[in-house]
Design a protein that fits this description.
single chain; 180 residues; mainly alpha
């Protein structure tokens, strides 16, 4: 499976402010509703149909997490009297305790960017784009592995959270394929 139109960096845009009530609602929605619901059909002759609603939901979730990270960086810079636009190319920015704590919450066990949540989104996406067809499992697994290899190539070595995300993703993927 070839993944196209992926940009290594995204331009930074002004994110919308996320109110604390919305964060709570989003978090509870994610836990209460599964991202992908697959209903097996007996008709194998139909053409491939992917779960458009799940793909759209996963895209929204990714956009919200991305906006949250941007907001975290912008607020940290603001506390230091800086902005992204005025930041020098080689200027060093110190990560303050507030930003560090917020980032830890994001990647923590219950955070939207934690290994558990990200691995689940990866598997949900694979299920959604395959239409729940496990005959496409090898292609999907290969694409996931390639994505992690590309990230490792860019970073030199994957951080521990990425290694844990990969491990959990493969476990969940194999469980789906083996219908556990």
């Amino acid at each position: 499976m070839k993944v196209e139109n992926i940009q290594p960096t995204q331009p930074i845009v002004q994110p919308e402010k996320v109110e604390s009530e919305k964060k709570t609602t989003i978090k509870s929605e994610v836990k209460e509703t599964p991202a992908a619901v697959y209903e097996k059909t007996e008709n194998k002759e139909t053409s491939h149909v992917y779960d458009k609603n799940t793909v759209a939901k996963l895209k929204r979730d990714r956009q919200q997490a991305h906006a949250h990270l941007i907001r975290l960086v912008q607020e940290m810079l603001k506390r230091q009297g800086k902005t992204l636009e005025l930041l020098g190319e080689n200027e060093i920015v110190e990560v303050d305790e507030t930003a560090r704590m917020e980032a830890q919450a994001l990647i923590g066990p219950d955070g939207p960017l934690g290994a558990e949540a990200v691995s689940q989104r990866l598997v949900d996406f694979a299920i959604a784009i395959s239409g729940g067809d496990t005959s496409k499992a090898e292609t999907l697994k290969s694409a996931i592995e390639q994505g992690f290899k590309e990230a490792e190539k860019m970073l030199g070595e994957l951080p521990e959270i990425s290694k844990e995300t990969y491990r959990l993703t493969m476990e969940k993927f194999d469980a789906w394929v083996n219908e556990e």
